[in-house]
Design brief:
575 residues; BirA Bifunctional Protein, domain 2; YbaK protein; Rossmann fold; nine-stranded mixed sheet; five-stranded mixed sheet; 13 helices
Length: 575
């Protein structure tokens, strides 16, 4: 492709709207253009990258036995009402009416539609198991679209849905999808981790996220470098670090009894720790949660940790929220809550972070007062213990006991075991081996095509621009002629262009009549893996400079060596 005949509107300056590197570079390199908040057009270079990502995903899905189809973007409301997600999905769903006043939505996901398809056409266990997938546009009305393609309102996704007659078949397909997604990211050349995760609005009882590591990623993950354990930050299990400081104030000597201390207007742990001259870890916080029936639960945790409501919900198998406003019982004082003599109507649960602690401080359930030298089980009771907090630096792996590490990344894929959540609600059944109708056991497997593009840029770039991996680069070679007015250089560049074309190499030939410096800057910005330069070196010794975008190394080759060089490069990089 000749640059002069192509459409690559690069930008010299970083756009003011860009928030992170991938957003800025996708705009500057002419991959995308913003149409409205969270809505982007893919320009030719970006579209080429998208198609290469799609092809890799499609190849791995087909290898794993999945079957491609295409479902409509517009979905009728009645299916979502049956699944009870029409209201649950909330304002993120784009809703519209047809001319007859019937409600529809622009699909944020396709569980309802694919389940309806199974209801219509999958009748017997003989038709199972089956895994159906599509590559389709999705719509979610993000409250705050940001980071370019990473948090967009319109995006491209591959979503697959499996239907099985038993848990064993579901597990087999789940593992196939796990391996297929891993192969996709390995083929693209991205550094990633797979973590245990929360199921969220999709539902189900078991899921894994695929996270591309990136400093500006929205997701935080926790992993053990020794045994390989990894999990989403919110759902990670861990062994609490030993945070108890034995060098405490004399008021906390073990021979002292529990007593009340006047703490005027001190309602936060930092202020209390300063006032009492103790470490924050010597304080036990009491947090109140409430369920849909207005029952209140108290959770006790170390003062240096935060309550993880999702873990509490999972532990109790309830939907919970923070207690506030008029929900607070009259006899409780927020800021001075504690487990000692708390109402008998409140169930008390303790986090593992306080297990084994002694002589700690808690609220006295009385305004302006706290208790010190409090101990369990002498001073209060606990219904159960569990993990209700987030991990901290220094916490240890639940499997091997080594120190955990923390990374940031971008979620690009998520796989779920849905079970019968949708098949039961949508009455999707098949005839079992015993002659009885049974609900399908389902799985769901999503991977973001447009998110992979953005995540690759976020992980693979430098201060000059993008550094595309060979697998998804828009072109393999950037061919630059430094002076289009020199006939010898023009003839040579045309010859090189012809040689590469005959080899089936995708080449972007920069034949523009502009300065070589601008060409080099555009080439670095766009990030094509190899750069062939026909210029001064060729005039001096008949050599072509070849730059590697990944590490900026340079070699010189003769025209006669191009074929061998490309073949060696292909073999080395499996491309």
């Amino acid at each position: 492709m000749r640059y002069s005949e192509y459409f690559i509107p690069t930008l010299k300056e970083e756009p003011g709207e860009s928030e992170i590197a991938s957003h800025a570079l996708c705009l500057r390199a002419g991959l995308i253009r913003k149409i409205a908040s969270g809505i982007y057009s893919f320009l030719p270079l970006g579209f080429r990258v998208l198609k290469k990502i799609e092809n890799i995903v499609r190849e791995e899905m087909n290898k794993a036995g999945a079957i491609e189809l295409l479902l409509p973007v517009m979905q009728p409301s009645d299916l979502w009402i049956k699944s009870e997600r029409w209201n649950e999905y909330g304002p993120e769903m784009f809703r519209l009416k047809d001319r007859s006043g019937r409600d529809f939505c622009l699909g944020p996901t396709h569980e309802e539609l694919i389940t309806y398809l199974a209801y219509l056409d999958i009748k017997s266990y003989r038709d199972l198991p089956i895994n159906l997938y599509q590559i389709q546009v999705k719509f979610r009305d993000e409250i705050r679209p940001r980071y370019g393609l990473l948090r967009a309102r319109e995006f491209i996704m591959k979503d697959a849905y499996s239907f099985c007659e038993n848990e064993e078949d579901l597990e087999k397909i789940y593992q196939k999808m796990y391996k297929a997604y891993s192969r996709v990211l390995e083929r693209i050349g991205l550094d990633f981790k797979v973590v245990e995760a929360e199921t969220g609005l999709i539902g189900g009882k078991y899921s894994h996220e695929f996270i591309v590591l990136a400093k500006n990623g929205e997701e935080q993950l926790v992993y053990c470098p020794d045994c390989g354990y990894s999990a989403n930050y919110e759902m990670s299990g861990f062994i609490c670090r030993d945070s108890v400081d034995n060098d405490v104030n004399s008021n906390f000597r073990e021979d002292n009894e529990t007593r009340e201390v006047y703490t005027p207007d001190i309602t936060d742990v930092k202020g209390l720790a300063k006032f009492l001259k103790i470490p924050i870890s010597k304080i036990v916080k009491t947090m109140l949660l409430i369920d849909s029936s207005n029952k209140i639960y108290a959770f006790l945790l170390s003062g240096d940790r935060d309550l993880n409501i999702k873990k509490a919900e999972k532990f109790l198998n309830l939907s919970l929220g923070m207690v506030g406003g008029q929900k607070i019982p009259n006899n409780l004082n927020i800021g001075y809550l504690g487990p000692v003599n708390i109402s008998s109507h409140i169930e008390v649960y303790a986090d593992n972070s306080i297990r084994g602690k002694s002589n700690f401080a808690v609220g006295a359930n009385k305004k302006n007062y706290h208790l010190i030298n409090v101990n369990y089980p002498g001073d209060f009771t606990v219904k159960d213990w569990g993990d209700f907090t987030f991990p901290l630096q220094g916490d240890r792996c639940i499997n091997c006991g080594r120190k955990l590490k923390f990374e940031k990344g971008i979620e690009i894929g998520h796989i779920f075991k849905l079970g019968k959540k949708y098949s039961k609600k949508l009455d999707a059944k098949f005839l079992g081996r015993d002659g009885k109708l049974k609900s399908f056991i389902m799985g769901c497997y999503g991977i973001g095509i447009s998110r992979i593009l953005s995540a690759a840029v976020e992980q693979l770039h430098d201060d000059k621009g993008i550094k595309w991996p060979f697998s998804i680069a828009p072109f393999m070679v950037s061919l630059i002629i430094t002076n289009v007015r020199n006939k010898l250089l023009v003839d040579t560049a045309e010859r090189v262009y012809s040689i590469l074309g005959k080899m089936g190499i995708e080449v972007l030939y920069d034949d523009r009549d502009i300065s070589a410096g601008v060409k080099f800057k555009d080439s670095d910005l766009i990030g094509i893996p190899l750069r062939f330069i026909v210029g001064k070196k060729f005039l001096e010794n008949k050599k072509i400079d070849v730059d590697y975008r990944e590490d900026c190394n340079r070699v010189e080759i003769a025209i006669e060596e191009i074929n061998r060089f490309i073949e060696d490069f292909r073999n080395k990089n499996n491309c």
